[in-house]
Amino acid sequence: MSKHPLAYLDDELNDLRERGLFRWPRVLEGPQEAVARYDGREVINLCSNNYLGLANHPKLKAAARRALDDLGVGSGAVRTIAGNMAIHTQVEEELARFKHTEATLLYQSGFTANAGTVSAILGKDDVIVSDELNHASIIDGGRLSGAAKKIYPHKDVAAARALLEESRGARHVLLITDGVFSMDGDIAPLPGLVALAEEFNVIMMVDDAHASGVLGRAGRGTVDHFNLHGRVHVQVGTLSKAFACQGGYVAGSRTLVDYLIHRARPLLFSTSHPPSVAATALAAVRLVQQEPEIIERLWENTRFFKQGLKQLGFNTGSSETPITPVIAGDEQLAMELSDRLFTNGVFALGIAFPTVPRGKARVRTIVTAGHTNAHLRRALDAFEKVGKELKLI
Asked: I need a surface site. Which of 110, 177, 282, 291 has the fewest CB within 10 A?
């Protein structure tokens, strides 16, 4: 009898199990909070992208309820047919003011914002010059575009220059970077890259998913952080991390947005945001501008927790943001660290290849504005106990 055509998946899964890397996502039983209930256990949550603690904020919930009552539960269509609601354009107008750009365009996720934009503005005669640690959505957008891909070592501006030099004959060239790198928590050398883009007259694009609501005034992102307004052609932001709901957006010129609404496939072929989600995003973007002290609280917690981990002797890599990896190196050791932390009341996820390079497995932590000093001290106590048990410190 012949094997089932999907039998090879069992072989792949068995390999993951043998290496101690098979994991099913833990189940959140209640709201997304700094202390939350996962798999029946109350734990200090260091896994969430809920940077500003807004996922259960009363103002955001009230905005969602009003939209449900007034506008219903769904838009009923893609934007370009019958699903272009007034609440969508209100969010885009607010984001354009927030980002100091001519226009913005909502996407269903940050992933589709990257992949859909890169694949729409480039083709097979073009070149993408990209940081080696850029997000998977940038990589997939490049593949979909058919453009040639040239990868420079992480944050190596001189190497990026060399690749731009050898790409001078291409029809169009895109220089692209994450603003904050999602696994290491370091910040892109954006001023140097922008200077290169101007020198070579190429398109400059930054993915600010993990900088949105975190860096810059009121969380405007890395362009604001480095005061580069008007010099980055394409900015991608997210609504699903610090702004606590769902979706992504592209900020740039009116021409860019007008083009994308006719050519970006995720926008053309996926139903638009439910009105309650759009209303939540609008409330969140307004809230951070009215209460910037929320972001300062995030950074106070970040500084406290980073210092604590370093004093204990953990390797936290090159992190400069609330994303702080605790690098174990060995894949099974990173997973064991994560499992023992959970048993000791701290949820911090183990991450291994292919998400990070081999030999760089880690537990990734993210503090939020919602954590208290007491929460973070308890988490550091757990890290100290488990780190000593595993001889990491």
From this structure: 291
